[in-house]
Design a protein that fits this description.
Radius of gyration: 24 Å
CATH class of the largest domain: Mainly Alpha
Largest sheet: 2 strands, antiparallel
Strand order of the largest sheet: 1-2
Number of strands: 2
Structural class: mainly alpha
Number of domains: 2
CATH superfamily of the largest domain: MetI-like
Oligomer: single chain
Distance between the termini: 41 Å
């Protein structure tokens, strides 16, 4: 009987301590994420009243307006253009760097630190430096290449120029995640492959890629969500009177414009609901597709 009571007491203590550890995270998730989602969906059925008070219920009027708003669909296209450039390039470059910096080499810690520095740099400083690099008159890029390209004021290339900043700023974060995944791969696999005469390229595709696929999947799904939510780079790099803003503003930027500049929080919430639906559809597709290429040990 004493053993049964001891086991029951231990199980109770583990249950209590388990909930004690996860409760702060759950509370934060509910307060900062779950509740605001439902509040946003609720707000999308209202129009902000005069002087920012007294919301007026308008039903699906905001959604009807949104589906007929060309600016919204242009923002959708802009958002996808950014994500299509930023996500694959940031993942591919970070993966190559992680593989290179996972080997024994001199100054390896210094190289890792250098590549991670953009993640700890102030966003305002990053924007200021890149605006100088992209300047059409005295920017470093035009000086090096001998051109006079309007990198951030040409509607045809502005969103891609901003995507380049996104790739540069997120490479270090992705690289650290890949390094963590690479260090979990046993070295015996590579030793056996070397004995069998497998080249470094074959080892990469036959050993590294399959065993690293869970990490690649995690980075991909988080970067797609992050890419579709881009706002800060566009806000800080481009001025409101920039002629290319219409071809570069994202859905989140359009949400900010409607909610906090024009004070139409109901319509801004509707735009966020559209973004939420897009992210959910893409995430569900990724979760289904990962069954065919992700290998869990």
């Amino acid at each position: 009987m004493a053993k049964i009571k001891k086991g029951t007491s231990q199980a109770r203590n583990e249950f209590i301590w388990g909930w004690a550890f996860i409760l702060p995270t759950m509370i934060g998730l509910i307060v900062l994420n779950i509740i605001p989602i439902f509040q946003t969906i609720y707000q999308s059925f209202f129009k902000t009243g005069d002087f920012g008070s007294g919301n007026i219920f308008v039903g699906f009027a905001n959604y009807i307006k949104m589906f007929n708003d060309g600016e919204v669909w242009q923002a959708v296209i802009n958002t996808f253009k950014y994500a299509i450039v930023e996500v694959p390039f940031s993942i591919a470059i970070a993966l190559v760097l992680a593989v290179l910096l996972n080997r024994k080499m001199k100054f390896r810690a210094a190289y890792r630190t250098i590549f991670f520095l953009p993640m700890v740099a102030a966003p305002a400083a990053i924007a200021m430096v890149w605006r100088w690099l992209f300047n059409s008159e005295f920017g470093l890029l035009n000086h090096v290449f001998g051109t006079k390209i309007n990198w951030i004021s040409d509607p045809k290339i502005a969103i891609f120029a901003i995507a380049v900043i996104g790739v540069w700023s997120i490479i270090g974060y992705n690289m650290v995640l890949f390094l963590a995944g690479l260090q979990e791969i046993p070295g015996d696999y590579y030793e056996a492959a070397s004995i069998d005469g497998a080249s470094g390229v074959r080892q990469f595709f036959n050993i590294t890629m399959p065993l690293l696929s869970p990490t690649i999947f995690f980075v991909t799904i988080t970067r797609v969500i992050g890419g579709l939510q881009v706002f800060d780079l566009i806000y800080m790099v481009m001025d409101r009177n920039n002629p290319a803003l219409g071809k570069a503003q994202s859905l989140v930027y359009l949400f900010y414009q409607n909610s906090f500049v024009e004070n139409n929080k109901g319509y801004g919430s509707t735009i966020v609901v559209l973004l939420l639906a897009i992210i959910m559809v893409i995430t569900v597709f990724q979760m289904y597709a990962q069954k065919k290429w992700v290998y869990y040990n």
